[in-house]
Amino acid sequence: MNPVATHTSTNSLATIASELASRIQQRTPPRSPQIHLVPTAGNTQLFVANGSRMYTVSDTIADRFQQLLATGDEAAITTELIALGLDTPVLINDTPLESPKLYALSLAIAQKCNMGCAYCYADQGDFGGPTKNMSLDTAKQSVDLLLKDCTPGSKVQVTFLGGEPLINRNALREATAYAFEQGRQKGIQVNFSLTSNGTLLRADDAGFFEQYGFAVTISLDGIGEQHDRLRPMKGGAGTYAKIIENIQPLLALQRKMQVSARVTVTPLNMDIAKTLQEFVDMGFHSVGFSPLLRSSNGKGEMSPEDLQQMLQGMIECGLLLNNMLSPANAFRS
Ligand code: SF4
Predict the structure, then answer these.
(1) How far does the centroid of ligand 1 lie from the alpha carbon of residue 114, in Å?
(2) Fewer CB within 10 Å: N-end or C-end of the chain?
(3) pLDDT at 122
(4) Whole-prediction pTM
């Protein structure tokens, strides 16, 4: 892709995205727990919360619901839904679900971390308890439990989390090999994933993750200083440069492996279109943005105004990607 071509259009995309975000916000604030009207080009969509159903409705019906929404008369909205034949038994209720079959396992393989992120969900990695590593025995027993009732031909998922999972690299690698071999013997496909802060990655990890086809997610909260402010080491030092250096072998080797960036969005790193552009240019397989709604210490949480600004940024990202994928840019790579 041509970074110049996409960068030069960022300002105008930002303007369009800002306009769209504010239009959507003004035209579709939630007014009823039962329904929501979404005006689109040419018609109106009626969203019925019970069962998350969408219908295209005529102007007459849309007007009638608009009036009922303006009065806030929930009983009349119910009557109108019945008249239209859109009433159904409650599809979503509080009845506990039957325990589903086990298909996925998340192993908190290390309850400790070398970083000190401002908003950490895990009390800087130890979840408020003593720091420790999961033993290989516990990891293997968990894998046995996962595979116990699986039938040949099924697929399961093993995910490694922390703290920082690479602090317990040996157990992670041995548990992976064990799960793969057990799955092979039983005819079960085991898929692997890992979320890491990226600071402890070694060059030889790339070959290991590629061998087992890992989906590797690296937490990165923006470019350079923006990331460093939110995700420093425990002593306060920046981590961005080190992470970018560490991930190069993974980005270069990914075939079966997929390397993604995950951005936790706070009021301090809202420049998400610029971040997306940078990470796509680096070669990440995908980039995910997730707003910080709640943090254990209250730091970095997004306000409703911040979320609107983020919506604007997400629209901008969509326009940017559209631009990158347009035939006009296809030959500039
Ligand atoms: S990398 Fe950051 S968010 Fe993750 S466990 Fe460590 S301190 Fe917490």
Answers:
(1) 8
(2) C
(3) 84
(4) 0.75
